[in-house]
Amino acid sequence: RKEVEQDPGPFNVPEGATVAFNCTYSNSASQSFFWYRQDCRKEPKLLMSVYSSGNEDGRFTAQLNRASQYISLLIRDSKLSDSATYLCVVMGIIQGAQKLVFGQGTRLTINP
Amino acid sequence: NAGVTQTPKFRVLKTGQSMTLLCAQDMNHEYMYWYRQDPGMGLRLIHYSVGEGTTAKGEVPDGYNVSRLKKQNFLLGLESAAPSQTSVYFCASSPTEYSNQPQHFGDGTRLSIL
Fold first, then answer.
1. Mutate to test the interface with A, among B99, B110, B111 (most CBs of A within 10 A)
2. Can you tell me whether residue B83 is helix, strand or coil?
């Protein structure tokens, strides 16, 4: 079983739609959780951290359920510029260093 | 705002050739990482460093070596390139091990081994 699993998609949704991504992780000792965004042929960039209480950043809402080891990302009122691959990332500490474990990513295309 | 810089951006090698990928960061970060990304897969950690003069193996270290002689630089070496090492390589850095300061990535090196 992969440490971090995501539905690879692709998701094709019309502009203005709401879209949700899910992610599960296997290591219950994981400490921190993030969503990264990766555009085609570009480096991953941090989209947002995910907190246990849930957190929102504009049109983006992230939630974490530690009991179920489940992370989600909701995008409201989607824009064409939201088209990208979204990476679920789980972090722990090994030998004093961060260990980021990446999901394979969910590809999203917003259609006009 | 250079951040994390990787050189070269692209390279084509023949099987058996050697090369070194350079990662440089100007943020005074202690921690540096090398990842590879293959189609349909997430990033996988090759090697990492928790400070100048230290290196450690990640998830997929075989066929690679690294060095961190200066705090700002992290080098990834391929001693004898193999087609299986065709990939996109990303370097990253982070200021500390703390969880609210995730890694900053360079823009990648696309490497093809023929």
1. B99
2. helix
